[in-house]
Amino acid sequence: MTASDTHRAIDAVWRIESAKLIAGLTRIVRDVGLAEDLAQDALVAALERWPESGVPDNPGAWLMATAKHRAIDIFRRSERIERKHEELVPELRERQETAVSELDAALDDDIGDDVLRLIFMSCHPILSREARTALTLRLLGGLTTDEIARAFLVPEPTIAQRIVRAKRTLADAHVPFEVPRGAELSARLSSVLEVIYLVFNEGYSATAGDDIVRPALCEDALRLGRILAELDPEEPEVHGLVALMEIQASRLRARVGPSGEPILLLDQDRGRWDHLLIRRGLAALERAEKLKGANGAYALQAAIVACHARARTADETDWRRITSLYDALAEVAPSPIVELNRAVAVAMAYGPAEGLELVDALRSEPALRSYHLLPAARADLLEKLERFDEARVEFERAASLTRNLRERDFLLGRARANTNDI
Q: For the whole model, what pTM was predicted?
């Protein structure tokens, strides 16, 4: 492998392994800030050594072992040397390359998932809602502060400050590394669901990089959602979120073309949709509705994607029902992005002119100023209205705002399709 190939491999390994690595280290050192620092040290070591030695057969275990060695060095210089040294050194000697898998099997309760523990730790009520979500996306989603800032539509320094303060707060409060039970579980559940779905969304539509989708993030989010559904089976919004993710995940294979380019929903080959995931999603949605959760934010979004899943062709999509579901969602969980999605649904149900009027009303919304899908949606509607010069300008603006290279190329291609000489 060339050095650039190795660096790409390291980036891929980090995206896949970082959440498990940080979670496992947090269980050992009981300090989420220190755990992330140790994980970053291991990443730096990989960047230094792997270009020469090659990527190891079990890169996750290599990173964990390296981070633990670093932890031992730190504890040797601390007052806790005796206790921590006794815990870590024998483990390193015995487990070596199989450290990660064996530790997972040795967990001491019925949840058996360090990542889930880390989510609940990061979503402790001692933190603000914004800090909880930003921290968890950083630790478990493997997202950069820039990517998180784009997901929240706020400046990057704001996110960086939230993350630093959140880690300090958790450390000072000695928040336990565990999944809560009973009333405390219910109190933290909404923020946990929000984080899981934000992680899923980053996998479903990557905000940056060379790929449109990051399936590993979707799989992690789905796994955590399914665990939560077993942990709290009477909570309708858990099933609503699982339904939403299952149905959206069913379209992953159809969302990307042979050259990595994005394929819009209405242009997708529905034969490539995973119908097992669709059936699972529809069953989860039915379960949420039976628990009287039909009007929950996740259940409403699941009902929207279910309309697409049930339509055999794009032309059979019930856009009027989708519009009414967005009306309900705007009441339950109002946001500029919900309004933008509603405007697109109105355009599909009642014509592009009506949709464009709603989109134009959102152009002054501060939270959408750097959101590339606003000009992209506007450009699409202008194109349908044969206002090609205006559409081209909006597609170019959308391309300038996205950080995803595939999406940028796609938007620039649509801009070129709206030039005067075509």
A: 0.73
